[in-house]
Task: structure prediction
Amino acid sequence: MSCPNCKKSGLVEITLNIATRPVTMRNCSSCDSRWWQSEGESLRLPGVLALASRR
Result:
């Protein structure tokens, strides 16, 4: 996989279960872009934080 912003490889990928959903954060080591996905859906940071704040 490559960065959608700069097209370079070298991504860091971390998957966590947040509110019973697997959420994957990817970070580009070259341009420091970050993005999140869960179950095939792209998420923005506010959506990730909303999931994390659910009880």
